[in-house]
Amino acid sequence: MKTRKKHPATTLSAHSVRERRAALVFILPALAGFLLFYLWPTLCGFYYSLTKYNLLGKPRFIGLANFAKIVHDKLLLNAIMVTIEYVLLNIGFQTVIALGLAVLMQRLTKSITLRGMLLLPWLVSNVIAAMLWFWLFDYQIGFVNIVIDALNIPKIPFFGGEFWAIPTIAFVNVWRHMGYTALLVFAGLQTVPNYVYEAASIDGASEWRSFSSITLPLLRPVLAMVLVVTVTGSFQVFDTVAVTTKGGPMNVSRVLQYYIYQKGFDQGEFGYASALSVVLFIILAGVAFVQLKMMRANESDMA
């Protein structure tokens, strides 16, 4: 009786099919979560942006009326300007401080304990961090103002002052995220070969010249990723504002996300709030695209 030999290509194909099935089994939970918790709500948001909806009845299709209303919304313009102010403060300070911490960690210490301590604020939830600093910065009983008063310096209305509200909110978020951002940059620094610095040292390059001509260009892909994540996250700031200022005083801290929340849950305009969310989505997509182009992401001067 003749036995049929298996062709090598047939065996390889069967193995490949098994691998693909196994991969599909592992991917399915994440894929289901993405479809259920990200894609489906996004599609629903786009649909509700074309309706008048207050949760009490069925949504009524009104076309682009919500987007036409956005053009004449002066409060929206104020919310966008407040958000941009917060984003600039948050990104500027967070990036500079994180870069400095990462360089110091690389040059001065390799202590894992120190890296863990830097990550601790990031492990605290946004709400807890906001409550902690709200108590510390309280005008009457806050520890910081007690110390300031003891030094015969006028107390500072951190969350209650028109000038101080947004910088203080930015400070809270910089404190919470700078350790995590520093570790991302530190991981990028580990990919820079030492021989590059050694060659620069032999050529007589100063520390600043090595940093500006070697470190920063080689960190471009990491910095691009950090900036995109930080900027998109900053545009979505909500919980710190909700816990501390609730958009006040005089709307000086009413960022875009909090304005959308007020329109939807305080005023029951879910259709209009969805249209505002679509605008925020377009802004974030545009900002991320421009950032990636400007930073030439995935490209490094090492190439």
From TrEMBL:
<dbReference type="GO" id="GO:0005886">
    <property type="term" value="C:plasma membrane"/>
</dbReference>
<comment type="similarity">
    <text>Belongs to the binding-protein-dependent transport system permease family.</text>
</comment>
<feature type="domain" description="ABC transmembrane type-1">
    <location>
        <begin position="80"/>
        <end position="291"/>
    </location>
</feature>
<keyword id="KW-0812">Transmembrane</keyword>
<keyword id="KW-1133">Transmembrane helix</keyword>
<dbReference type="GO" id="GO:0055085">
    <property type="term" value="P:transmembrane transport"/>
</dbReference>
<keyword id="KW-0813">Transport</keyword>
<feature type="transmembrane region" description="Helical">
    <location>
        <begin position="117"/>
        <end position="136"/>
    </location>
</feature>
<dbReference type="InterPro" id="IPR035906">
    <property type="entry name" value="MetI-like_sf"/>
</dbReference>
<dbReference type="Pfam" id="PF00528">
    <property type="entry name" value="BPD_transp_1"/>
</dbReference>
<dbReference type="InterPro" id="IPR000515">
    <property type="entry name" value="MetI-like"/>
</dbReference>
<protein>
    <submittedName>
        <fullName>Sugar ABC transporter permease</fullName>
    </submittedName>
</protein>
<feature type="transmembrane region" description="Helical">
    <location>
        <begin position="218"/>
        <end position="238"/>
    </location>
</feature>
<feature type="transmembrane region" description="Helical">
    <location>
        <begin position="270"/>
        <end position="292"/>
    </location>
</feature>
<keyword id="KW-0472">Membrane</keyword>
<feature type="transmembrane region" description="Helical">
    <location>
        <begin position="21"/>
        <end position="40"/>
    </location>
</feature>
<dbReference type="InterPro" id="IPR051393">
    <property type="entry name" value="ABC_transporter_permease"/>
</dbReference>
<feature type="transmembrane region" description="Helical">
    <location>
        <begin position="156"/>
        <end position="175"/>
    </location>
</feature>
<feature type="transmembrane region" description="Helical">
    <location>
        <begin position="86"/>
        <end position="105"/>
    </location>
</feature>
<keyword id="KW-1003">Cell membrane</keyword>
